Amino acid sequence: MKIHIFTRESDYSFIFLKFINRNLDISDNLFVFRNKSGKYQYSEDVTGKLRYYDSPAKMLYYLLPEIIKADEIFFHYFPVGPSLYFWFLSLPILKRKKVNWKLWGGDLYFYRDENKSLKNRIFEKLRRKIIYNVDRIICPVRGDYDLACKIYNTKAKYYYAIYPIWIDFKQIEEVSNIQIKTSKEKIILLGNSASSTNNHLEVLNWLSLLKTENIRIICPLSYGSEEYAKQVIIRGKEIFHDKFVPVMNFMSQYEYAKLLLGVDIAIMNHRRQQGLGNLFTLLFLKKKVYIRSDISSFRYFQELGITVYDTLSISKLTFQELFDLNQVEGLENARSIRNEISNENLVDLWSGLI
Question: What is the helix (H) or strand (E) element at residue 136, kind and residue range?
């Protein structure tokens, strides 16, 4: 039996379970979440395989016996909170199992926050003990795997796999046939959330030289820190006035696809791998995408033959250089993304795991 450990239900976990149920045999799998959101409607096949354990007592009473019976454990985002006490106490059992870490990004880079509090130091110490015993790390970006091995001194093997993205490509293609933009205004998508890891303020300062140009900056801030979002909005409005447009409401997949279709360029300033799903979608839409050249995602796209641009060069670019996009590059990027994230390729990747 294989047990999949998730933190909470999300669009990504919902699409993932829907994908593997449709394409693979899940009869020997269990999927464990911290709590039930009530937002998602699963098929009967999946529902029978779901478990919700929202307290340490339930984990000890219900989950532990299932772990003892299991052959493999999959962590879909490695824990960074109090559940680590449970997993540390279960370490003698885990050592007898095949343990897989489906690495996301934030769960790897938590080590950067180790010294921010005593709690973080304790959690990170527990993580190091557990991750050392991981057998396999699953992720698309090889650079993240290499860093995990270095930081956690693990001998885990590398396995390449990608989650299905939560935006439907067929829907995107339908949306792309709609004429969204008619003006000559240049539209910039800045970041993907109200998380400080987006480093919005740095980019706003770089772009300040363009404040008199015919531009609009769309800034999604609908999830994350409300306090940080306020800081970004204040600075954005201070520099760009009505040209800075914060997006504070959650959007449907269709509406979000329309939003992305309308932009000319996307600027991401994360200092680590983050938001791959958004990047896949933007590149599929043939948009010019900027990410930092000093992070693992940049090298990942280069290895796939996908052209992305360096966020760190923005302050040196002219207005025209910032927006110019080679149409052939855009078409090649879209083709590469389509192949990489196709159902056939995903089935091939995950069939070696499920």
Answer: strand 136-138
Of 230, 318, 220, 233, whose CA–CA distance to 266 is shortest?
Answer: 220
- Terminal CA-to-CA distance of the chain, rounded, Å? 10
Walk me through the domains of the chain, giving residue ranges and CATH numbers. 2-164 (3.40.50.2000), 169-340 (3.40.50.2000)
Helix (H, G, I), strand (E, B) or coil at 4: strand
Average model confidence (pLDDT) for the chain? 93
CA atoms within 13 A on the CB side of 57: 0
Asked if 50 and 113 touch (Cβ cutoff 8 Å), the reply is no
Closest CA to 20 of 279, 278, 348: 348
Q: What is the chain's length?
A: 354
Contacts of 346 (CB under 8 A, 6+ apart): 19, 23, 162, 164
CB neighbours of residue 275 within 10 Å: 21
Q: Taking a C-beta distance cutoff of 8 angstroms, is the pair 290, 213 a contact? A: no
Contact 135, 99 (CB under 8 A): yes
**pLDDT for the residue 180:** 56
Question: What would the pLDDT profile of 257-291 be if each residue is shown by its tens digit?
Answer: 888 889 999 999 998 998 888 899 899 999 999 99
In this structure, the number of other CB atoms found within 10 A of the CB of residue 36 comes to 12
Beta bridge partners of 50: 31
What pLDDT, on the 0 to 100 scale, is given for residue 181? 59
- Of the candidate ranges 165-169, 288-292, 324-328, 333-337, the one whose mean pLDDT is the lowest: 165-169
Share of the chain above pLDDT 70, in %: 95
Helix (H, G, I), strand (E, B) or coil at 29: strand
CA distance 311 to 17: 34
Please give the model's pTM, rounded to 2 decimal places.
Answer: 0.89
At 252, the pLDDT band (50, 70, 90 cuts) reads: confident
188 forms beta bridges with 217, 265
Query: What is the full DSSP assignment across 64-123?
Result: HHHHHH-SEEEEES---STHHHHHHHTHHHHTTSEEEEE--STTTGGGGGGGG-HHHHHH
